[in-house]
Amino acid sequence: MLHKIGIIGDVHAQHRYLETALHYLVEQNVDTIVCTGDLVDGEGDVNACIRLLQAFNVHTVRGNHDRWILQHKVRHLPNAHLLEQLDPESAEYLASLPNQVHLNTNAGPLMLCHGVGDHDLQKIWPGTDALPAKRSKDLDHIIAQGKYTLMINGHVHYRTLIHFHALTLLNAGTLRGDHHPGFALLDLVQNCVHGYELEPAVHPVKTLSLAPPNNKHVFRDTQHFDDTWEPVTLYA
Fold it and tell me: Are 198 and 20 in contact (CB under 8 A)?
């Protein structure tokens, strides 16, 4: 049973931030570390990122950017990598990444994925004045099954908590420098999650309880989203 889990969001080749976050989490005596993928397409060193993830035994899933580079697709993006820029070992590592990882925690079963389950492009957002709701029948099906109490995903790049009656969804955010670079630590003994930012150095910014808030923003499923959500964020 896992009690303390380090959480790394979409990496996007930020090897320096990744190394800093990994060392910090190890110093906090975490039981394991997870990563939501998207290792490629950024300004840093992808090969160094992959070596770090392997050295720290990080549970990592494949993101849509990792899939795209293997398929030679969408390489017109800014700072996009080409497969020939990767070491053979790095390319093999990317090809071996699963879409999902399942872990047993002190709070129940956890699913790690990039989007929702096997669908790496799905975004979940309850809806705000600035951004309409992003719903998912796939997530609704996962919730209805009742198999998982926790899900950690990425893709959206905002470290947020979304509370459903039967599941808590934690978006891991990103290490990308233009988008609140940071990471998180899930403490299932204290029933909370700690958010950290990386600029100018590692510093805690917020701690949130995993307990559902006693208000209307605890949802049955994504069809229950009503575009009035006040984002529950893990950044300043």
Answer: yes
